[in-house]
Design goal:
7 strands, alpha+beta, seven-stranded mixed β-sheet, globular
């Protein structure tokens, strides 16, 4: 994991941008924030369907798959796994039932039945980048 940036010397919050994910700083956010206390909390910024170079996958399924892969990169960088994820928020451009099916199929490849995190899917008209169709934000605990 990259060197963390601490919000303030007395703050339990550290910000991280792990190798393998593109540099989000020019867009005004960090990929992860860790809050250390009796329980370590990992807040993962919305992960889209882009690779480490910021190139978006060409279609919805590929973007969902890549966003989940990016989520796993962030979790691994924080020494966590998908079993640590308690909550996800999925943003879907032009949501419909077909996209819900794709999302469910791709989630089942990453999370075990009975261990799916709480999740809210929010239909949206647009996301941050042109061509971006899907974004996934997560909260994990260790």
């Amino acid at each position: 994991m990259t060197q963390p940036v601490t919000a303030h010397p007395a703050s339990p919050v550290e910000y991280h941008n792990p190798a393998g994910l593109y540099d989000p700083v020019p867009n005004g956010y960090s990929h992860m924030a860790t809050v250390t206390g009796s329980t370590r909390v990992l807040l993962i910024s919305g992960q889209g369907g882009e690779n480490a170079h910021g190139e978006l996958a060409p279609d919805f399924r590929s973007q969902v798959r890549r966003a989940l892969r990016n989520l796993m990169i962030a979790l691994t960088a924080a020494d966590m796994t998908c079993r640590n994820v308690a909550r996800l928020t999925a943003l879907v451009v032009d949501h419909d039932e077909d996209k819900l099916t794709v999302f469910g199929e791709e989630m089942a490849l990453v999370f075990q039945p009975g261990a799916m995190p709480a999740c809210t899917l929010i239909p949206v008209p647009r996301l941050a980048l042109d061509g971006m169709l899907f974004e996934l934000e997560g909260t994990a605990y260790a």
